[in-house]
Amino acid sequence: MDNLKIYALTLITFLSFFSCKEDSNIVINENIKTFTSFKQKDTIKFKKVVDFKKGVVGKIYIKDSALIIFNLDGKRDFFFYNYFLKNDSLSKGYLPGGKGPGEAIGGMSSGLKNNILWLHDLSLNKILVADIEKKTSNNNKPLFKEYPIENNFYMMEYQDSLNLFGVGYINSLFKVQKVDLFTGKIKKQFGEFKYLPEDKPFSSYKTAYEPFILSKPSDDKIVLIYRFSDIIEIFDSNTTKSIAIHGPEMFYADFNSMSIKSMSIMARNSKTRISFVNCAVTDNYIYALYSGKLFNTKNSNFGMYVFVYDWNGNPIKKLILDREAFSIAVSKNDKDIYIYDPKNGHIMKNKI
Asked: Going by C-beta distance under 8 Å and a sequence separation of 6 or more, which residues neighbour residue 114?
């Protein structure tokens, strides 16, 4: 079942699209481009860098000659580890699991921006921030400061020392909220959902179109990468103007609605497809790890393809991996790619 309308350049095409598309009653973006294939395809074979047996690698961040590993299972132990490439050694863990100050229960989003390492704790509704260049007396482990978040966000992104971006705020008709780091309050909203659907509650559509969010290192753009439709959406951070890119399979979120605590949310069904499962960005490109599998199939949250786009919304190439990956990282010069192979617990690398 299709749940989006594709924007057309003329009114006639626009109306024609309405008439032939079933249940196409929501528009993700009026400025949308479509494509059906990548002009360039490259195959990458990976070599093992390190076994990681501490948990599940949700993200990998490259810092000089070290990898910073975000452990999704950190509440059992620690959320971050450093792997030093030069001497092949793994640091002791830091940012422990727990409900106290300087501890976390967990969430989906973390990041490294310049020297700032951060984690959004979805369960405790706070963000923990550390300058990894500052030495502390605590065995040289980063000292995390924490700030409360007033509203519930599915994912967040650190912008600078004053601001955060958030997505998945269920009570808003807007996709993105700009949030004050110190107060946790919303300062600005943009990316409005238009042409609201009538066949399902809006809140269920909002959860079906919850994206990953990443900020361009140069800070002038952000990208939303959708989880149940092969769409990415790029915003100018200052003007909030945007463009969406849909393809190459051009499918939409297929889902049912269910009620939890008097609120309707997305319920996956036998036709729900998993689109993007992880992502990374550089100043040149957006890298989105793609599954494309039905939700109820084995390893649907793993991907064997990385779709590469530029920041103007052009599809550049498709990377075909020699194995399924759960998370990816790319060096800032776009030359090296790292993946986490969840089947073997390996972090692996090769040239792009």
From this structure: none
Looking up tokens 């300062």, which residue turns up? 187
Cα–Cα distance measured from residue 70 to residue 94, given in angstroms and rounded to the nearest whole number: 10
Burial of 336 (0-12, 13-18, 19+ CB in 10 A): middle
Inter-residue contact 55 to 326 (CB < 8 Å): no
Which pair of structure tokens corresponds to residue 196? Answer: 């609201």
Rg of the chain in Å (alpha carbons): 20
Average the pLDDT over 5-27 and give the result: 35
Residue of 347 and 8 predicted with greater confidence: 347
User: Within a 10 A sphere around the Cβ of 122, how many other Cβ atoms?
Assistant: 20
SS3 108: coil
List all residues 6 or more positions away from 257 whose beta carbon is below 8 Å from its beta carbon: 200, 201, 204, 264, 265, 266, 267
Q: Return d(Cα 306, Cα 326) in angstroms, integer.
A: 11
* Residue 240 three-state SS: coil
Name the band, by pLDDT with cuts 50, 70 and 90, for residue 135.
low
Cα separation, 157 vs 59, whole angstroms: 13
Which pTM does this prediction carry?
A: 0.91
Tell me the two tokens of residue 210. 């919850």
Residues 138-160 pLDDT 10s: 667 889 999 999 999 999 999 99
Distance of alpha carbon 153 from alpha carbon 160, whole angstroms: 18
What's the angle, vertex CA 183, arms to CA 177 and CA 189, rounded to 5? Answer: 15
How far is the C-alpha of 209 from the C-alpha of 75, rounded, in Å? 27
Q: Is the pLDDT of residue 21 over 50?
A: no
- Structure tokens belonging to residue 6: 């594709």
